[in-house]
Amino acid sequence: MATEADEARGSVRARRSIAPLLLRLHFYAGILIAPFLVVAAVTGLLFVFTPQLDRLVYEDEFFADGRGQQRPLAEQVQAAVAAHPEGSAGSMILTGEDDRTTGVVFFVDALGEKQDTVYVDPYTSEIHGSLVTWWGSTPLQTWFDDLHRNLHLGDLGLHYSELAASWLWVVVLGGALLWLRRLRAGREGRGRAVRRALLPDLSARRGVRRTRGWHATTGLWLAAGLLILSVTGLTWSRYAGGHFGDLVDAVGGHAAELSTEVEQAPAGSGHHHDGTGGNATAVDLTAIDRVVATARDAGLDGPIEVGLPAEAGAAWTVTQTDKQWPVRFDAVAVDPTGQKITDRVDYADWPTPAKLTRLGINAHMGTLFGLANQILLAALAIGLLCVIVWGYRMWWQRRPTRADRTRPVGTPPARGAWRHLPPWALAVGVVVAAAVGWALPLLGLSLAAFLVIDLAAGPLTRARARLRGLPDQNRV
């Protein structure tokens, strides 16, 4: 009698828990959002190894032929300006590697947001070619980056990647909670439960149980990495990223801007330089060697980018660009003569939100930990694809096989799970869903669309069941 009572109480708790609602949400999100996740995973996998492809495709531009003593930086930038008179020289990229060319970045009105980077041999000042770049990214990298972000569809395509990132964390957390809750409910020792949570049940017969084991355990192993990708991807998305930026503004989480103002411009700072074009005509380019030397003396080692003054009398800028851990992003402003630092912003002084955002972006792009970071991202992409395939396979394996009830796929989890939730849980859920929907607009809109479709599908399903004389399996 006690056993029957315990089972009854367990049945009531199961009905009044959030698990059925999570199961239905996980099912529909997985079925409908998975295609977007597949595209994101495939395009991300293609993008992740672009640094290695760059070195192969752009070997002539990237690598120097000469050896010995390097030519002065002023001579190198002058050579680039002479070969590219139609642009405005904006910055100089120094990789810190002896066999690499020096990049001189030109702003060209016709290129819009892109730039033209001229590559100069530091040993001979010969030009190795030029590439249309996008803030340091080569044409190859930019093409794959655009493919991953917007499928080359412009602003319209941005919706796909934001939708995928918005739902990824929901699917991951929901699946993990469902799997761990299922194992906790089992009557077995803790050690065996942990093993079942982390390792697929290879002893299971072929079928949905075995597929579910691979789907769930692989997803659990990938969960932390996928959550990081979801969050970091959202930080620079179109709508959710805008809300994130507003939040960072509200808490003062941006790094301080480097000031290029100089109290009093030293004499000779407006020295004219023939044939330089753009803003370089009003800037003394011969100061660049002194600028870099001053920045190096101030501790800015490794790869750097030297920003030319926007106008005569303004300060030069030197910024570290080492995106690999331990990252280096210190920046200094140097007076027009190149002999004194007028302002400094160190990475150590950045607010925590700014640091976390920068590290998250670098990790998402595969640069934070070098090759290990790239391999991890590739493993996450391949693992996610496998989890999705197993999910669809389970849907197919759950299809009715009786001759009188054939269907191509399985029946969705029962509708109306939300009706069994306690009122307080339902109220909290509505508030949380509204807040999350505001913060992540595409998640909120698509969730609302799911609910409308689900409400409309209910009566249609019941009507079809009555016409066919079948029991209504979706009845609340």
TrEMBL record:
Transmembrane as UniProt keyword: yes
InterPro entries named in the record: PepSY-ass_TM (IPR005625)
Annotated TM spans: 21-49, 163-180, 214-236, 375-396, 417-436
Keyword Membrane tagged: yes
UniProtKB keywords: Membrane, Transmembrane, Transmembrane helix
Name assigned to this protein: PepSY domain-containing protein
Organism field: Frankia nepalensis
